[in-house]
Write a structure and sequence with these properties.
The complex is a heterodimer. Chain A is mainly α. In chain A, about 80% of the residues lie in helices and about 0% in strands. The longest helix of chain A has 29 residues. Chain A is globular, with a radius of gyration of 19 Å. By secondary structure, chain B is mainly alpha-helical. Helices cover about 70% and strands about 0% of the residues of chain B. Chain B starts with a helix and ends with a helix. The chains are: A mainly alpha, B mainly alpha. At the A-B interface, loops of A face helix 1, helix 2, helix 3 and helix 4 of B.
Chain lengths: ~270, ~70
Amino acid sequence: MAARYLSRRTVAVGVIGLAVVAAVQFTAAALLGGGHPILAANVSDFGELLVVGAAAVLVFLTAAAYGRGEPGRRQWMLIGLGVSAFWAGEVVFSYYDLALRIAPPSPGLPDAFWVPQYPLMAGGLILAALAYRAFAPTRRSLVISAVFTVAMAALLWVFLVSGLLADPSMTAGAKALSIFYPAGDLLLEVAPAVFIALVLGSFGGARLATPWRIMAVGIALLGVTDSLYSYLTQVGTYASGSWIDWGWPLGYLLIGIAALVARDAYGV
Amino acid sequence: MSYASGMVDILEPYIGRMNADTCVRGTALSLGKTSDQIGPDDRPALEASVRRVLAPLVPGATLTTIVQLMGEVR
């Protein structure tokens, strides 16, 4: 029942998007394995820019389906701005990485775009969840997601923050950012995603719940991928081309698909 | 098929059976009736309820479509 209203356009974009993500990841991994790290970085960076950029456009198109001043427009605009902020940060990062062939400064210009992404995404998800409050007990969902958030914050402290604070080689700014990103991933991405998933519990397979469920999975995937990346980088076991690299493009692909599913669900 | 179940059938694909049923029953209760007692005369109240709960979720065009479908229930 849930899939009956999906358009061919949405299915086609989903299939093509998945093929693009897989082609980029496999090609980058093959180039890396073949001793071409710069080419691999080019493929990986351009592939990600393509997927993230497409996701931003699709989210803005869904926002545009609402009239000016309609309440539902705000949540889609915030998500679109969040995705765009990440895309802009990636453009700057890729410029340093591929054109200048130097590591971007940290804190640096890419962070000026990456940092705002978190409150924008969280704001979009929370506004969307609150829009459903006529149907669902948001207080109960809020309490459960708050408990989840506290548990995640404790894990974050044990596995990441305590180690970062004790690291004498990092500047205060670098430490603040290194703590902000994983904290933002869990508290401003995964936790709001859990909140909206709980709020939508009473909807069953109804079409108005599906877009935000897909959105929640996409944003949660980004948060989990970022957190794993932070942890593996800290313990020194992350390497480019690993399976974790699939998390970012798949997360943004899901965000784009959520926007398309919303247009199908609304019939616009 | 009762008028209320016709309304629930219109809303169900969008918000699920449970929410649709609650929406129609809640409107009936606000009118001092049960679901079985509401009819075409109560459509303005039902329409107002649906507009109130769905306006934050869907574009105006979608809401118009849903309200038009509700108008076809006899």
